[in-house]
Amino acid sequence: MTTDQHGPSEVYDLEAVRRAREAATEVPEDPEHATDTDDVDQDAPMTVDGQVLAVVDERPKSAQRAAAPRREILPGWAKDRESAKAAAKWAVDYYGHATTYHGVRLPTYYAKLAGRAPLGLGRVIAATYGWIFDTSDRETRAQVFGTVNDASAYLRLRQDRRTQVRARLFLTLLVLLVLAGLSAYVVYGVDSLMVQLGLGLTALAGLGLLGRNPDKPITGRAVDASKEPRLTSELIVNALGSLGLARLNQAISKDGSKAIAFVSPIMRDGAGFRAEIDLPAGVTATEVIEQRERLASGLRRGLGKVWPETDPEVHSGRLVLYVADKSLAQSKPAPWPLAKTGKANVFEPVPIGVDQRGRPVTLTLMFASGLIGAIPRMGKTFTLRLLTLAAALDPRVELHVYNLKGGSDFIPLEPVAHAIRSGDDPEDVEYLVRDLRAAQIEMRRRYKLLKTLPREVCPESKVTDALASDKRYGLHPLLYVFDECQFMFEHDIYGAEIIELVTDLVKRGPAVGLMVWVATQRPDAKSIPTGVSANAVLRICLKVTGQMENDMVLGTSMYKAGIRATRFGRKDLGIAYLVGEGDDPVIVRSSFVDAPAAEAIAARARAARLAGGWLSGMAAGEELPDDDTGSILDHLLAVWPEHDPEWSNGKVWCDELAQRLATSQPSLYEGWTGEQVTAAVKPHGLRTVQVKKMIDGGQVNKRGLSRRDLTDTLGHTEIGGPDEP
């Protein structure tokens, strides 16, 4: 036998033992590499080899919490009237349908329950028997009895079981007596037959519930959920994992579902469900958006119901996934808020429709020109007419509407349009050209006027809301609308001049209140000149058939960025991408306004113009003069006699010709220079030549035109000007 080496009564000092252990594990300090930890700033940036690894936030915790982004008290749908209405409508429709569906089937459900009542009664009897005689522990008792060797212990166990069975049997009989008494009271003591029948049916239904078969449910499904599984976090994670994104798959395989964080629970938002998701590090929301079609497949929903978006204000990895109940094509177009009441202001956003989440989409017409493209019969003309109606509800806007395909789509605007034409007949095109020439002259007048206005009246050298409302300056907004613009841009006589004029208006017009909108069903380089498409700020693209058409309307590389109007189907009428109004392209379904509604809106607009004194042009009974149908070539020939004593060689400087044009037709050519004459005749194929003239004994050489070239060009084009004398 051995004794304890410390002795039987020795007491350990635990603190001393711990100190000794810690001292033994300390590494001796190297004087050459020693650091004074007391002098180290614990809040300083962590660095390695001079590279900053992390910067410590030195602000107090209270300041950090105050600067942290705060969650909204109410969800977005609750603060937006339209979204709240959509959510309430969905709840009423869904639960109302479910209630009605099951309500009309209550007799069938009860019949099924009654049919299963005998099975339920049998299950009650079987369960009661098993509880009284403890049948579930039969095997356990047999094992226990088999291992007991003591006769007295065996007899004691047997007695205990008999006592338990007698007690449970007595309790069961007592319950049966109570139930029998209650039944007798209901049958003989209750006078109301309805109460007796109700209690009996309730008891029968209870037995039916106990007799249910899990494989054969009593009730049916009010909503067929087999086609679209319920939107859950697990379904979304699986769908994201099916996109084939390498970084995303690596994160999921490493961390599982924890690799994708749900910022907030999946919630109801308008006419669908919304989920905010933080993707793994290195994965951007744009990558997911580009795989929208695969994402829709993973979610087991149609492409028109799945709309992933990014939230760049948070970070590039924040994905906002919206899953709509119905695709835009299946839902009804949202009513236009200005259809029955209200006015518009082109300096402020005007509503044009809703996005895929039912949120209003607005567009600001002022200071921008626009472009609309689509294949035929997709709603291009209706969208353009909607924008024109919005401008008509601003009494100050002067409308110039040209429907070059013909037809009656824009006829409702006749009561308010300053100039309106339908068709591409020669007289229509000539009228359009004269209107464009007048617009260019008006644009120059406005720029000259703005230079003379005091800084307090015109602070930024552009038309303001206040200036547009002041009739003294004549700076009210002008809107030029051209539907099927390819007919005017490709015109064999005036096409080149129209391209030059429209391009000039698109480039310089917005600052002085001139807005130009063109629409075409054939988006290509000829239908939309580069000068027009490159300077169009607002772009609306409905369904197109190819990448080239998509980028021609929406902008270069939009197709590669995943903004593809080619994905719209033939059923997606009025659905388009809108680019230029905000930082990111948006999907919009324009509000539908038919011809009768357009006429009613135009009548309201006319009344407002009459009240404010803004009605003008054709709407007021005026007409653009039709006596002059010639081009600049005709006008040059009219001021250029065959035998000019000052220019005997038949050649005249362009500066001289500009002065003659301004004197002859000041409404068209006032303020023109020789360079403008050169640019105006160039589209007609007329080239300048060098013209020499003696001035004060010296020879001066400038660019000019040859009269012979002019007459040859006129004879070749045959546009109705005077013949060579």
TrEMBL record:
Q: Which UniProt keywords apply?
A: ATP-binding, Membrane, Nucleotide-binding, Transmembrane, Transmembrane helix
For the region Disordered, give the residue spans. Answer: 1-47, 700-725
Provide a Gene Ontology MF annotation, just one: ATP binding
Q: From what superkingdom does this record's organism come?
A: Bacteria
* Transmembrane regions: 167-187
> At which positions is ATP bound?
A374, I375, P376, R377, M378, G379, K380, T381
Species lineage, top-down? Bacteria, Bacillati, Actinomycetota, Actinomycetes, Propionibacteriales
Q: What is this protein called?
A: S-DNA-T family DNA segregation ATPase FtsK/SpoIIIE
**Domain FtsK spans what residues?**
358-551
What ranges does the record list as Basic and acidic residues composition bias? 15-36
Q: Which residues form a coiled coil?
A: none
